[in-house]
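Students often ask why we bother encoding 3D structure as a string. The short answer is that it lets us treat folding as translation between two languages. Here is a chain of 273 residues written in the first language.
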Amino acid sequence: MQRVSLLMVVGSVLVGACSSEVDTEVLPYAANLTTVIGGDEQADDDAKARYSVVATPDADGCIDEAGDECLRPQEECGDDGAADLLVDKKGRALTTLCYPTSGVAIENIEGDLSKVGNNTVFVLDDTDDEADVTGNVTLDGNNVTLYGRGPDVSVIGGDLHIDKNNARVRGVRIEGNVVIDKNNPSLVDCVIEGDLTIHGNNVAVALCEVWGKVTVDGNNAYLVENRFASAPAITGQNTGCNGNVAFEDADDDAAISDEELGAAIECSSSETD
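And here it is in the second language, the structure alphabet:
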């Protein structure tokens, strides 16, 4: 089943742009859009979507599509913010993920990601070719965004290790394992062919497929609208979950069809079950 990056891509990408004000037209994602991820348990089953893309509200405005609670991603991300907003089964906010629209460098990446500076948006291309980044990747800079154009086309050819705080990884396939050791990172719209191990706190994982084992021993993890080959082993506290399901690749074609999706996976330590 084809998976694509969920936020619109605007304009071209400027290599090495760095200033306190970045022209939003050179970002790989659109400013002023919020992706609401997670369904409302009261919604009609036929109408329930895993996500919806809406305009980021201004000032005291609310997102109306996500249940009874007034959701305001602009409080954390700004009126022109690019955001992912994870919600629970009742449409209440779990966490808001902000993608930078100013104060960052923007770099195209192909082949090597050995130098990771702080406050940088690293962009993988949208060409369906070999791995965009060969070998293992360690994100050892703070406030780093690694942004791909969907896991079918943006590929890391090894393991991914998140070793600094506030990393954002979106729209990427990781052919190896993922280990998260630091706090406040996120993985959205991803495919992980190996294991996912979460040691850090306040980790968000949404709209991802994980083919290996999932281990969560950090606190305050948020797992929303994911597909897992096996139920997560959770020992951390205050895990918020919504919309996670099991899958089995019955025909061994390395892709998941709707017929291969199984039962809902609940989190044993979740506040929101």
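Translate back mentally: The first helix runs from residue 74 to 77. Keep this in mind for the problem set.
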